Request: fold
Amino acid sequence: MSRKAYITLGDRITAATDLVSQSSWWGQIQTWVEVLLTRLGLRGQGLVVAIPYLWLLLFFLIPFAFVLKISLAEAVIARPPYTALIEWTEDAFIDIKLNIANYLFLLQDDLYWKAYLNSVKVALISTAVCLFIGYPMAYSMARANPAWRNVLLMLVILPFWTSFLLRVYAWIGILKNNGVINNILLAFGIIDEPIVMMQTNFAVYVGIVYSYLPFMILPLYANLERLDNTLLEAAADLGCRPIKAFFSITLPLSIPGIIAGSLLVFIPAVGEFVIPALLGGPDTLMIGRVLWDEFFANRDWPVASAVAIAILLLLIIPIMVFQRFQAKEAEAGTA
Amino acid sequence: MQKSLKTTLVAAAVGALLATSVSAEEEKVLNVYNWSDYIAEDTIANFEKETGIKVNYDVFDSNEVLEAKLLAGGSGYDIVVPSGSFMERQIQAGIFRKLDKDKLKNYGNLDKTILEGVSLHDPGNEHAIPYMWGTTGFGYNVKKVEEIMPGAPVDSWDLMFNPDVVAKFKDCGVTFLDAPTEALSNVLGYLGRDPNSNEKEDLAAFEEHMLKIRPYIKYFHSSQNINDLANGEICVAMGWSGDMLIARDRADEAEQGVEIAYTIPKEGAVIWFDMMAIPSDAPHPENAHKFLDYIMEPQVVADISNYVFYANANTAATEYVEGEVKEDPGIYPSDEVKAKLFPDLAEDPKFTRQLTRSWTRIKTGQ
Reply:
């Protein structure tokens, strides 16, 4: 009996799938998805915007939630090495334990604050140097003959084809006592003793500026390339000298590019770990290194997570304030 | 109806039998996670040939990285090689499975004294076997040290820890391992204090002494010293025995006139053990036991020692270890020197935090 029923059911399924495929089931799914998206208020433009939000949710918010969760736990010798946030007790209660001691701990010791300030200092100086070097480069690229522009652009991107780690290691070979620079200077008799460059803050700046320079050049170039040339021509016609035209037209118009480039350099530079670890000296105190120590040396994942969250908040707040300020400026400009 | 029930039962029983026999016979795979450059070139290939087990061999270069993977869980490794003090804490966290010593027929080859030393980390030697061991002393550039300070105390920690002596080598380059626990033990031993103290007072004495010699230390790093010593970039480096001997060999190969020697200081130094253990969530524990047993075969482990220049913990293997390795006091120290070595035991978490903080102060002045 059962066997007979089985066949019938199977037949029915086959028939059903046939029906769906005949009646263009694909179209049907499309309609469903459309209905669903409309209900969620996502149509046309909204759908396009949803993709970056989904990306943000998957690769930023969810990991952030994990780190936040660990930062509110307590360190224990176990696997995983922190306590659970939510526990089911025997009488079916949910027991939620939030431990904010890790954040308070960060305030007790000025190490974290000093390391953070020092990181911000290093990042600010690096950003300024990147801007100083990057602006003329982006400017000359944007002014170059269009046939050359792509080649120049290619040359800026080219270093990315080599591993970041290898490029930082290469700087060790260049900067060390019997490295390229010292050997050349010694050979020409310019110096008698090698100049100590490795394991100094100087080497950290060189490494950061070198690594992040393309992130400054690319947005600046994109901005400067779109600059309306007729404005400069008009200025020239009215008797404005090129230098003045640059400062009163080009520079103000390129401010969005400067801001984009500076943020792209500044934000990753604050949390930089690899460059100070490889090129810096033992006294280069940066927040990335402090975080490493918390995680690996102290095995205190909760405090390490609290440090990570604190860095994030300290970085996000100024950026948000800045953006709001910019939006207001833009409004004022249009009004 | 009755018949069909019977058939079903039989079928179920056969199925269950098949299932158990399948799970008892592990797939022929083994995932090994070992230190880089820490095995002979043909060990894995020979093991695969002998057992038919396919080995996925992966390497790490710091205990911290290994520990982070183990603590996160689900690493998928069957064999891991933590150092003793790290393993001690990992055992407390329940990371490892107990060894089934009935499956380890070569266990009797292991050195009884070393097993006793290791039991400080792993009471009763229940979770791991000692793989290789070494010391934390210092390597130095023989010619430069002699040139700067004729008759320098190259057999003593004075060379690194005596502020008046180490000051002379500042420009030539003095480096420390970025390993606070080992630095602590060695300095406390030098100061005549308990190397494994967890007392605040001893930590303060350590920090005070380190700050005296801090101005003369170029950097704190745990692997850069090999190349820098071999190239003549630095003069004196606190380092692990095998690393310093690798530096010696690289200097010889480079033929730039750099000569490196390794010292186990007369005041005593840290002795450490790298242990092979099986994580509790290892997917192939049977194969892991076979691998451990294979490593304990005298010829196999002797070949590894001959290649990596570290002493093994296998009494039966000593006769197969080449003279060059066996007679090197930096690798196989005399009993007299051995008696002065002290293990680096795990500290309690509170002390670890204080030590890390103190180490940051020493390194950065903050």
Summary: Confidence is low (pLDDT under 50) at residues 15-23 of chain B.
